[in-house]
Specification:
single chain; alpha+beta; 10 helices
Length: 402
């Protein structure tokens, strides 16, 4: 999927085919999800569809016609109750109140994506909107490492980063990346090494980069092609890095230099949703208990901080599964035999097969800032938040364990 286009106002636009909407029964969450997926399955062969453009932001979801000239539908995020997807049929859907309709009636809006990964991406975007909206309304629940003295950026779906791609026949060092996709290996580097890496990537000209790469034995042989940067962009970035403010920010710890937001790539976006990035672990666990059956949280193990764990909401409640790693670098859940090359492959497997778990993992997520009434009063929302935190008054930091 790569990256999603982003506008200056923090809105991400994706295309899909709108199938239509249908009413959703007012029942308990688990029954509602089950009925919802039965209905989605029955509509997988529906050929009456319309190509539309979806715009996601932490304020809501808007649907335009294909050329984005006519607004067809708009939903405030606080009126969207949940998001889900069925990647096997390339379906994405969300449940919300229709503007102007009675508050008691919910509707499911169904979309057909181009392929399975596109449907997953749409669902991840909306799920991350839910999390960013919660962080915006409850900043006291933010994990400590995401709070710093640096100027905060307005929450946006995608960071205005500088993605680089080197089209070469050999391996080349990439730009430093602050978030790792679950399953990726980490290497310990000093701050000097990180600065050296930045200088290698943002050299003023491709020819100097090539010479420096060969001299440092980074580029061994083969063809080398330039960055996707234009000379103007390269010069602007180089000036920014050489400025005193840029150098101070480069020396700051990574955990203080970046506010929680949706990431640049599909992989980093998935990690942010799975790890509830930006929200304290205790608060995330409390919210998970109120989420859909099969929802999960990827976080460090409470008793083994150097190991990962998967906290899953089963019918019996929250259950923590240790993620073990083998000598060959494989991953597996404790008491399970299936091994995987990455955490992402592990999660994908248990989304499709129970394989010893009490239920399938679910990609659906609830909007914890959802408001049933159009003009919901703030004291009610505050009371709900306090009830969610009654057993977890403090939040803890999340640590990198992958």
């Amino acid at each position: 999927m790569g990256e999603a286009p982003i506008r200056e106002d923090g809105t991400v636009t994706r295309s899909a085919e709108y199938v239509g909407s249908f009413p959703v029964d007012d029942c308990c969450l688990d029954d509602q999800i089950e009925q919802l997926h039965i209905q989605l399955k029955s509509l997988k062969a529906c050929k009456r569809r319309r190509t539309v453009s979806l715009k996601f932001s932490i304020k809501g979801v808007k649907m335009y016609n294909e050329d984005e000239t006519t607004l067809l539908m708009a939903h405030a995020l606080r009126r969207v109750s949940l998001s889900t997807a069925r990647p096997s049929d390339a379906q994405f859907a969300f449940v919300s109140h229709n503007p102007g309709s009675p508050d008691v009636q919910l509707y499911c809006h169904l979309f057909k994506a181009r392929h399975a990964r596109a449907a997953q991406f749409l669902n991840l975007l909306l799920c991350r909107c839910f999390q960013l909206s919660y962080l915006e309304k409850h900043p006291e629940e933010a994990q400590e490492e995401s709070v710093g003295s640096l100027p905060r950026r307005n929450p946006s779906l995608l960071n205005h980063g500088f993605p680089l791609s080197v089209s070469a026949l050999v391996s080349f060092r990439r730009a430093p990346f602050r978030g790792l996709f679950p399953g990726a290996k980490t290497t310990s580097k000093s701050s000097d090494d990180q600065r050296s890496s930045q200088e290698d990537v943002f050299a003023p000209s491709p020819s100097l980069v090539r010479k420096k790469a060969i001299r440092n034995k980074i580029l061994r042989s083969g063809a080398y092609r330039s960055f996707t940067f234009t000379p103007l962009k390269q010069r602007n970035v180089q000036n920014r890095l050489n400025s005193p403010q840029g150098k101070e920010q480069a020396n700051m710890p990574a955990k203080r230099a970046r506010a929680p937001s949706l990431a640049e790539t599909e992989e980093a976006l998935a990690q942010a949703v799975w790890c509830w990035t930006g929200i304290g672990t205790d608060c995330s666990s409390s919210l998970l208990a109120e989420d859909v059956l099969g929802s999960y949280l990827l976080c460090p193990h409470p008793k083994k901080p150097n190991h990962g764990s998967l906290i899953i909401r089963f019918p019996s409640g929250l259950v923590t599964h240790l993620i073990e790693s083998t000598r060959k670098g494989k991953f597996l859940l404790e008491k399970c035999k299936s091994e995987f090359d990455s955490i992402a492959a592990l999660i994908e497997h248990y989304t499709e097969s129970e394989d010893g778990l009490a239920c399938l993992l679910s990609c659906a997520r609830v909007n914890h800032c959802y408001e049933w009434e159009e003009n919901a009063c703030k004291p009610k929302a505050a009371g709900l938040r306090k009830s969610l935190r009654r057993n977890n008054p403090k939040t803890t930091q999340k640590r990198q364990w992958i």
